[in-house]
Amino acid sequence: MEILKTQNVSKVYDGKVAHKALEDIDLVIEEGEFVGIMGPSGSGKSTLLNMVATIDQPTSGSILISGKNPLEMKHNEMAEFRRRELGFVFQDFNLLSTLTVEENIVLPLTLEGTKVKEMEKRVAAVAEKLGILEILKNRTYEISGGQAQRTAIARAIIHQPKMVLADEPTGNLDSKASRTVMEMLEQINRDDRTTMMMVTHDPIAASHTQRVVFIKDGKLYNEIQRGDNRQAF
Ligand code: ADP
Ligand code: ADP
Q1: Residue 12 — left, alpha, or beta (φ > 0 → left; ψ -120 to 50 → alpha)?
Q2: Which of 9, 41, 43 has the most ligand 2 atoms within 8 A of CB, as the residue to mutate?
Q3: Measured between alpha carbons, how far is 223 from 217 in angstroms, rounded to an integer?
Q4: How far is CA 118 from CA 114, 124, 134, 161, in A?
């Protein structure tokens, strides 16, 4: 089953000179895949991810998530759909520094109105999976970068979305922390069948994907299918 299908997606940014950031992007991601998007700076990676995230809209073409076009939904329905289908991981973690690790992780559930008992159960499960049980009561300024990204991943998956969108998840981490974070994303992909779409420059991060799609000057131009032989990249 296709979780993502972009059809002829183009994006033009208006300015003094109009700039075509994406041109005729056709990309299909199957449920359960772990796909990396690589390309030079300015090639359109973030633009593409933002459109899939429904943060931004294509100038032409369409984007289907689980067969549906979120842009055709009413505002509330779209917000609900986005929450159910997608989780987000960012380069700079995007944690709220006034909250503890645990409070950051439960935010998506608070929005859904989940019962306290159920929240506690889910927090314990994701925190164990991500190796952050011992820091749940810490404030986010007391933890390391690797721990911060693992906290952000816990927050991204606690409501069990179908697909996680990650923008340079290892961009602010050293090699050791990068490996740990990527091993955890890979494990979530394997065990929970959560689809992963990740923009990255980092060969360590790319080595954990099953397929890498290359983008340049707003166009897809190559693809490497690696299946489950992930180490061989
Ligand atoms: P950097 O960190 O400088 O981006 P990468 O290893 O990501 O280094 O590679 C640089 C760019 O070269 C990639 O983003 C991609 O656009 C291109 N590239 C690398 N390997 C391939 C390949 N096998 N086929 C096509 N393009 C590739
Ligand atoms: P990448 O993520 O691969 O570095 P981006 O998607 O950020 O690339 O940018 C693609 C192109 O679109 C770049 O030339 C960038 O300058 C341009 N661009 C991105 N966002 C905007 C914007 N909001 N307004 C105008 N141009 C933009």
Answers
A1: beta
A2: 43
A3: 15
A4: 7, 10, 20, 16
The backbone torsions φ and ψ at residue 122, rounded to the nearest 5 degrees and listed phi first, read: -70, -40
Contact (CB, 8 A) for 111 and 155: no
193, 210 in Cβ contact below 8 A? Answer: no
- How close is the Cα of 47 to the center of ligand 2, in Å? 6
Which ligand approaches the C-alpha of residue 233 most closely? Answer: 1
What's the gap between Cα 4 and its chain centre? 13
Could you give the 3-state DSSP secondary structure of residue 197? strand
Local confidence pLDDT in tens for the 233 residues of the chain: 999 999 999 999 998 888 999 999 999 999 999 999 999 999 999 999 999 999 999 999 999 999 999 999 999 999 999 999 999 999 999 999 999 999 999 999 988 889 999 999 999 999 999 999 999 999 999 999 999 999 999 999 999 999 999 999 999 999 999 999 999 999 999 999 999 999 999 999 999 999 999 999 999 999 998 876 665 45
Q: Do residues 73 and 81 touch, judged by C-beta distance below 8 A? A: yes
CA separation for the pair 152, 90 (Å, rounded): 8
Q: What pTM was estimated for this model as a whole? A: 0.87
Radius of gyration, alpha carbons of the chain: 18
